[in-house]
Amino acid sequence: MATYIGKSWLSAVGKPVAISPRKLCSKKPINRWKESVRRHYSVNADCSSSHEGWSSMVGLEIHAQILSNTKLFSASKAEFMAPPNSLVSFFDASLPGTLPVLNRRCVEAGVLTALALSCSINMRSVFDRKHYFYADLPAGYQITQQRLPLAVDGQVHFNIFDERRKRPPSYRSVRIKQVQLEQDSGKSLHDEENAETLVDLNRAGVGLMELVTEPDLTNGTDSAALVRELQLLFQALGTCDGKMDEGSLRVDANVSVSRPGQPPGVRSEVKNINSVRFVKQAVDFEIKRHIKLLERGEKIQYETRSFDNSLGITVPMRDKEGKIDYRFMAEPNLPPLILHDNTTIHQSCQPLRAINVDALRDSLPELPRARRQRLADQYAMSLDVAYVLVNEPGLVEYFESVLQEDSTRYSKRVLNWLTTELLKHLNLNHISVSSSPLCASLFGELIDLMQRGTISAKTGKTLTAMIFDGDKRDLMEIIEENGWGLITDEDAIRQICEGIIKNSANTVEEYRRGNKKAINRLMGDVQKETQGRVEPGIAMATFKQLLESR
């Protein structure tokens, strides 16, 4: 295949094809064969079989793009959404005579990740060539670590949280078989209109960490929870941004089903799942599909499948009958990767350039699971609430910044407002904590106004909405201009309550007959009349005094 480097696509037959943005975004004609296959599997997707009497095993392969300025073996930049084929070096295009140069940052990221997963680090690892032929792999092989990877025998502990908080979190542990460094491939775009496959090599050679788990998972919920935990772990370490929608984190799921006590059944592999939600759906569907076929007396095919998120089903990609021989061989252009620790670093011929595993271990940040436990212990919050904080990047730092700014602020009030109002507006506006117009200091000021009784919670919600709508005025200026200050004068509140009682004879009579909940209607009336500005505690006490004294 001819190689073309420039701002155009490569066709699978070697012909450079310039594709305009309009053409790439144009509506493609329906592929009838593909549509009929999807329709067939949609119609036959009734996999509503009970799991009782069956045992399922799930293992994951997680491909995480390393956060690095350049690629694994070349000086080309590693950027998302750059113009097609604009970040391709001679090595990436596999031109003759080019040699790989290992990226130190990628190695350090791999070691950090392996340490965070409690892996045993191989102080000497090697690179291999994995041979297969595809249009987006110009060399005809991928440089990976098959025989002696960077790290082995790890473990990740995680909790499964019920989003509705009806059940306490459950604990899981999964073994990590190995962590290895490898190259990513290019990206293929199938142009059905012109019957061509277009190739973008920008991604070719970007550094990947591949994490292979043992088949310790049993269902889609476990699998999705593990992927989310790893996503948070990568982000905490700064080794991968975890953006599954951009392809920087991709998951392959290996699923097999058998009767309890029997050897594992024939497995199928679901490739390139690109969201946590889809991981759950794909794994659960595949388990049910296996069970349904086995209950019918049919055999499971050893095959590769993909997940169709529009239909919520898996469909065949290619079978694996007679396993593919990747013809692994040692990479002749790369020496073994030698790592050091504090005891051997002085023996290195270039100690300043050597990678010290002990130094990297000392630099490990607080990891998600430990952070959740610390928050629960330090601020007396449940693990479920701690999960919400840790799950949103930057929210823990925001929360602790608000409390550290003024130690008199009630952590429960801050936490409640944070996990309800702030998150609600962040989600509505599709922005992150770091981009929030309600900064930590302004948030703290808002909490203080409510805590001191200057404004009601209802007014606080209104002010929050105004800030997110772009109002940059001082909070007190807005409050005074609109007359939103909380009414706390007892005589003024008594006068308002007397008027409410006078006009609510039926409710008052109901209260005096024993229905004490009727007072809530009076509270609603006083809030309505004052537009939520009356101090509820004083108003409730005043109502009780007036009703009991008559």
From TrEMBL:
Gene3D superfamilies: 1.10.10.410, GatB domain, N-terminal subdomain (1.10.150.380). Its main location: mitochondrion. The keyword Ligase applies. InterPro entries: Asn/Gln-tRNA_amidoTrfase_suB/E, Asn/Gln-tRNA_Trfase_suB/E_cat, Asn/Gln_amidotransferase, Asn/Gln_tRNA_amidoTrase-B-like, GatB, GatB_C_1, GatB_Yqey_C_2, Gln-tRNA_amidoTrfase_suB_CS. GO terms for molecular function: ATP binding; glutaminyl-tRNA synthase (glutamine-hydrolyzing) activity. Allows the formation of correctly charged Asn-tRNA(Asn) or Gln-tRNA(Gln) through the transamidation of misacylated Asp-tRNA(Asn) or Glu-tRNA(Gln) in organisms which lack either or both of asparaginyl-tRNA or glutaminyl-tRNA synthetases. The reaction takes place in the presence of glutamine and ATP through an activated phospho-Asp-tRNA(Asn) or phospho-Glu-tRNA(Gln). Allows the formation of correctly charged Gln-tRNA(Gln) through the transamidation of misacylated Glu-tRNA(Gln) in the mitochondria. The reaction takes place in the presence of glutamine and ATP through an activated gamma-phospho-Glu-tRNA(Gln). PANTHER family: GLUTAMYL-TRNA GLN AMIDOTRANSFERASE SUBUNIT B MITOCHONDRIAL AND PROKARYOTIC PET112-RELATED (PTHR11659), GLUTAMYL-TRNA(GLN) AMIDOTRANSFERASE SUBUNIT B, MITOCHONDRIAL (PTHR11659:SF0). NCBIfam families: gatB, PRK05477.1-2, PRK05477.1-4. This is Glutamyl-tRNA(Gln) amidotransferase subunit B, mitochondrial.
